[in-house]
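Protein modeling request. Please complete all fields; requests missing the sequence field cannot be processed.
Requester role: graduate student
Desired output: 3D structure, token encoding
Chains: 1
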Amino acid sequence: MTKTLLGDSPFSQRFEEPAPGYSPYVFSIHFSKIHRVIPEQEIMIIRPPVFMTFSTGLFDLMTHVCNRAIVMKDKDTVLGLNLDQIQLLPNKKIRSNAVKFQVVGHAVLRGRDDYLDNTDASQIEEAINTHLQTKLSFLNQKITPLNNSVYSPIKVIEYRELAKGVCQHYGGKITSIRGNITLAGYPASLQFLYDYGLGVRTGQGFGLLEVVKQL
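Delivered output (215 residues):
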């Protein structure tokens, strides 16, 4: 669906690259109801509607996605689904140095040896900072110049509301985290996480954040 929404924009070129790197966006999929999952066949039987939430910090990218969605409204998109409704959410600004976030769905954090669960705050903090710094550098070089002052070390303030998740993904299983996490840092750094997602695989439906409360 993201490939369809990006259409003929310059951002769609990343889908043709063998190693496209970090996505300049994050999204999450929510199903009205999941009736059945058949892992060995990679089949999920669901009840529509299907909801897709899309986020990016790039104004021109969001504009293109919205315009493309308007053109596609009431037409077939993928898997026989019609694009029924479009809702533009408020442009939320983070002004606090500490924010309680909710992970919408699952987020994936890659540690030194494997994907992380919810048990070690120091490893979670290290992974968040590594991914943030690497993604910022990648977007600066490959997508568009961003303000380098965006990066500042992120501190994990509270993580006990996180839970371990396991996702079927491309024929395998990925360890993930779910739930709420409270992070502290410069507002620009927290805004970056909110706009572009937490962790890796944000272009594959992981890492979307919602603000529970600015502290």
